[in-house]
Amino acid sequence: MTIAQALDALAARLGDRLGRSPSDLALHGANEAHFPAMPPDAVAYPQDTAEVAAIVGICAAHGCPVVAWGAGTSLEGHALPVKGGVTVDFSRMNRLIEVRPEDMLAVVQPGLTREALNTDLRATGLFFPVDPGANASLGGMAATRASGTTAVRYGTMRDNVLALEVVLADGRVIRTGSAARKSSSGYDLTGLFVGSEGTLGLITELTLRLQGQPEAVASAVCGFAEMAAAVETVIATIQSGIPMARIEFLDRAATAAVNAYSQAGLPEQPHLLVEFHGSDAAVAEQSARFGEIAADLGGEDFRWATRPEERNALWKMRHNAYYACLALRPGARAIITDVCVPISALAAAVEETAADIAASSIEGPILGHVGDGNFHAILLVDPGSASDHAEAARLAGRMAERALRLGGTVTGEHGIGMGKIPYMPAEHGAAWEVMGSLKAALDPQGILNPGKVVPQ
Amino acid sequence: MTIAQALDALAARLGDRLGRSPSDLALHGANEAHFPAMPPDAVAYPQDTAEVAAIVGICAAHGCPVVAWGAGTSLEGHALPVKGGVTVDFSRMNRLIEVRPEDMLAVVQPGLTREALNTDLRATGLFFPVDPGANASLGGMAATRASGTTAVRYGTMRDNVLALEVVLADGRVIRTGSAARKSSSGYDLTGLFVGSEGTLGLITELTLRLQGQPEAVASAVCGFAEMAAAVETVIATIQSGIPMARIEFLDRAATAAVNAYSQAGLPEQPHLLVEFHGSDAAVAEQSARFGEIAADLGGEDFRWATRPEERNALWKMRHNAYYACLALRPGARAIITDVCVPISALAAAVEETAADIAASSIEGPILGHVGDGNFHAILLVDPGSASDHAEAARLAGRMAERALRLGGTVTGEHGIGMGKIPYMPAEHGAAWEVMGSLKAALDPQGILNPGKVVPQ
Ligand SMILES: Cc1cc2nc3c(=O)[nH]c(=O)nc-3n(C[C@H](O)[C@H](O)[C@H](O)COP(=O)(O)OP(=O)(O)OC[C@H]3O[C@@H](n4cnc5c(N)ncnc54)[C@H](O)[C@@H]3O)c2cc1C
Ligand SMILES: Cc1cc2nc3c(=O)[nH]c(=O)nc-3n(C[C@H](O)[C@H](O)[C@H](O)COP(=O)(O)OP(=O)(O)OC[C@H]3O[C@@H](n4cnc5c(N)ncnc54)[C@H](O)[C@@H]3O)c2cc1C
């Protein structure tokens, strides 16, 4: 067996940093979403780039699959080893290598989490803005092209990764990009690896853009009697050019969920959660302009949070909203949707989705990063119920088709993994084959996270 | 001859839209910089995507090189047909297809120029910010990953192209990206084609992000006794987080050049040219903060331009600065450098470069988009002088090495073309081979702009 030979060679190289205990395998065969567990044959814990290169080299020699693992928080079964092989867990490569305040950048190992990075940055006056709800690893975030509540202002991982070190499928180590803010020096390899879900190479170092802590910050929660009014407020706000730092939507069901889970104490109606960053004067001006738009469209019951503790509580509540939704139905798992549409189509996309879910047999709170046109329905299923699964799949399929019909994408931020692969032909047409050609060029044996992203 | 067969088939398909007159060939064999002329065998003028696909299909069948041509303003001989073949001139595909104000985007054909687009957008309250000095085509700008004076605020073509239609080397037509503001749906093909200099596919349609016209705009010119003080002002300004819309540098020689060419009437000393965009209050606040930083570091003789005519004159002067530098030495041609370094290294990069040029036998005004760490020395050579060429090549080589030593790139915005290819191994190492593998995957015959970007 080729995998068995690879494991022997890896064990010789890594010693007890090749995990084979049942608990280790089970941990790395699980996922945050609803996919069946699927353990790898072993888990490698490299300590540095050279070791990653050695692992991949050994696996390449034996045709053994290699699947990267960051924090395991991805939502589409991205890191499930569908053909077995070795999972490379980056948790021991979690150092902040360097902060360069004068260039507003940080160099990190891939296993560092976003929260740990921001804790380390506290004294510098800088922060890293990209914030998926989970405390994900920066390598995993790059690999899924993650974003979060602040993408409307600061962009996604596409915009915030300047340079990478990558181990290729044959064990070669390359560097892409540089610490310069822009370049026209050839193909954008950094951009190619960002979002490639571990199928083109393993990221072993990242150079990240940082942002200055704003002088002033203000957050607010604002309720609406109708979902349509909340969505219209988002569209009008984005079109007005107010540089929102955050603008998030919770529908009535999601609001009920965060009330129950985080004692948010919000009236049970749709809400927008917003934040403004800038100088004192700029924040005051932006808040006032947003307040006018929202009030015009029926926003009510404004609650401002200017103290850091209040703001932290607000965004912690938002970041836990996924768990809050799951808790609505004890024992449930979630089929998570992640469409993103042009802002002009947001109202249609959200409202048709809500109507669909209302008419269905399952629950599905809606929430999202609406300033980017991105929202999720958290479709709750009883793991043992085939009819729940079928109904969720039907709703998710209709959402995906709707997003494509409206000129959008089936995944705004979570990525493809196992869950979104069926939609790739409809979304990309012949461009999906082109992705396959790129994969074949960089990983001809197909050992890197097989079964993901490209046509099989 | 394979090229001859391709030309017969193309003539049958295109009729008089296949140009073969000596003047047509000469025009498309010339370049803005110092490279020897090199005419193609024919020039095709397609009218739509289907025709581009047919042209490429015919060329693929006969192994005939295909070189895209936008406005021909690139500065490194990008579009020179070094292996002959057919130049595809996009000037008849220059329509603004659609403006979607509510999504702040425009869909354009590749031959539309940036100035024509902005003229068409005037009534919408929107504009397209990327502004290389020349009136380049949007297809060419995407292909070179161009930027300009506003990249410090609005980004480069990387950031402003949302979606593309591309004809591949085998004539297949694909669409990349979408009108949604973000996506995690697979490899970033849009980003791969942006900056690929016509070597991976021909761009036949672009979806571009637009920006709202700012409520208020203010521009200023500010002189400094010493170059070092001007550069320190840039670094301090960027690090302070003031959201500059533009911050441009002209050294003493470049200032003299724009005085002579554009009657700028500036004191003969180094200058910064700046602009602020925002609400009235924001512009006032930003201007004041910048004014303080500049004054602290020795900025003097501030001149504000708030009236649109004054501002237009200022930026027209800046956009013509390249021609102004050329005019310093009648009959001269330019070897243009385009380094970009991390902002912390800007002072070292500019000052060492200036000292090098001062100690050399040729002139080389320095100017650039310093807010990004990007600057150019326009090295003036007598086209007939081998010693001038050798001296310019030596200086350019030292600049490139210095940029790499300081962690930057040899080309911040112009691209590789013929001029920067020799530096690719030093800049990219093994990553350059990876670019070659991608090229081989998408263009196995090597018919698209052969001799460019990748290892030969
Ligand atoms: C409560 C909750 C809220 C969430 N909210 C958001 C959100 O708002 N926005 C968002 O974008 N996502 C969100 N997510 C999803 C998830 O957090 C992101 O997908 C995140 O980027 C995954 O990072 P990870 O470190 O957990 O990666 P993993 O799950 O470990 O891996 C994800 C993928 O990346 C690959 N990978 C990991 N590390 C590397 C590496 N070093 N090199 C190459 N490939 C690698 C893996 O092989 C896999 O394909 C949420 C998840 C949860 C549980
Ligand atoms: C005075 C002056 C100032 C300048 N200032 C700047 C500046 O500030 N910033 C900057 O970035 N550049 C600047 N440039 C350089 C130039 O304007 C840019 O490189 C511009 O992007 C080139 O566009 P073009 O339409 O002229 O392309 P071309 O010169 O026609 O072509 C450039 C490259 O793109 C390819 N190409 C063209 N169209 C397509 C297409 N549709 N599909 C695929 N490939 C295509 C060509 O094959 C070629 O490789 C300046 C040039 C001049 C003369």
TrEMBL record, chains A, B:
<protein>
    <recommendedName>
        <fullName>D-lactate dehydrogenase (cytochrome)</fullName>
        <ecNumber>1.1.2.4</ecNumber>
    </recommendedName>
</protein>
<keyword id="KW-0274">FAD</keyword>
<feature type="domain" description="FAD-binding PCMH-type">
    <location>
        <begin position="35"/>
        <end position="213"/>
    </location>
</feature>
<dbReference type="Pfam" id="PF02913">
    <property type="entry name" value="FAD-oxidase_C"/>
</dbReference>
<dbReference type="InterPro" id="IPR004113">
    <property type="entry name" value="FAD-bd_oxidored_4_C"/>
</dbReference>
<dbReference type="InterPro" id="IPR016164">
    <property type="entry name" value="FAD-linked_Oxase-like_C"/>
</dbReference>
<comment type="similarity">
    <text>Belongs to the FAD-binding oxidoreductase/transferase type 4 family.</text>
</comment>
<dbReference type="InterPro" id="IPR036318">
    <property type="entry name" value="FAD-bd_PCMH-like_sf"/>
</dbReference>
<dbReference type="InterPro" id="IPR006094">
    <property type="entry name" value="Oxid_FAD_bind_N"/>
</dbReference>
<dbReference type="InterPro" id="IPR016171">
    <property type="entry name" value="Vanillyl_alc_oxidase_C-sub2"/>
</dbReference>
<dbReference type="Pfam" id="PF01565">
    <property type="entry name" value="FAD_binding_4"/>
</dbReference>
<keyword id="KW-0560">Oxidoreductase</keyword>
<keyword id="KW-0285">Flavoprotein</keyword>
<dbReference type="InterPro" id="IPR016169">
    <property type="entry name" value="FAD-bd_PCMH_sub2"/>
</dbReference>
<keyword id="KW-0809">Transit peptide</keyword>
<dbReference type="InterPro" id="IPR016166">
    <property type="entry name" value="FAD-bd_PCMH"/>
</dbReference>
